[in-house]
Amino acid sequence: FGRLFSSDLLQASLRLGAVSLFFTGSAGVLIAHLRRQMNFKFLAVRNFVGGVAGTVTGIGMAVSDYGASSLIGFHLANTLGSTLFVFLFARPIPKLRFSSEHLRDLFRYSSTVLASSLIWNATFRVFLGLVGYTSGVATVGYFEIASRVTDTVRNLWLSMINPVALTVFSKIQHDQESLNQAYHQSTEMNVSLAVPIFAGMCITAPNFVPLALGSQWAPAIIALQILAIGNLLSATRQFPPIIFNAIGRTELNLINSTIAFVSANLGLLFLGAAGTAVAALIWVSRLIFTMTFGFWCMQNQMNMTAHEQLKGVYKPVLACLVMVGVLIVVNKNISHEWSDAAQLIFAVALGPLVYFPVLYFLSPHLLERLRVSWAEIRPR
What we know:
The chain is mainly α and 380 residues long. The protein has 15 helices and no strands. The chain has helices at 8-26, 28-36, 40-63, 69-89, 100-135, 137-171, 176-212, 220-235, 240-246, 250-271, 276-302, 306-310, 314-334, 340-362, 364-377.
């Protein structure tokens, strides 16, 4: 790779960075076991310890004029610190023992998970490359910054929800009734929190982008709004892929990732040169195919009709629409008088004040369930 890009620095950086794979892999079984035990407090401390070690090392190297190597130092110290913490304090430590039977089981399961992850990660990168090829680097920049804003929130949300959901669903995978009930409750709670966040991002994008990124990024506003709507739709279907992994039907996620790859990239190639907004629309339109496939799989695997799969979605979405309507009306009246910062702060404050009372009116039990869940997971 270093010779390919004619960079000695890249060559050295990759050699050092590859060492982190050993640390990450060696702690993988222990981390999976801790997740299975739902010991997320320990995992949170592990991440904190690794973050502190990486930050101290990276900043120290940067101050000492190590340049780009400081980033590698940060990464290595982060992974080493978190791995040492796991081996020092996690119990029990697994013994080094080989089992061909377990290897076959793990390989059959993990090979499709790996393939699905590779295809999904390649989907966005290939799509971004095609955007640049068909529409130029400026369009890539606007699309990338819009996706970076929305995906940061989405990935943070997924990193909190997905490990817990996979653990819970896996434990009850053989109890169809309990699994269905857990799916309905998880979907309802997830939608009630995620949907207003992404709807708020869509409404406040015209104020947020000039304020946080600068007026030169104004063409990214429409893309950010479209991608926020796409993430809003994805939030209503967050748990089917986790269900499929929990019940061992990982090949369904592999097919779904392939559908996303083909539909997004072929759609862009078919339309050719496209602006930022069109590229965002094509990217979001892949959900038409993946969500349709997801509905069909859930009906076959879980014996749930489309209506049953969505019954926890309707009330939070209705409350969100009321919030959006109020914000739009208010923004029209104050947009010519208030600054972007004032409008943004006001919208962030007003949104929850409208959304949660409406949600309580539509579904009082949901807010009570959210309150109980927060009481169970909040730090003590």
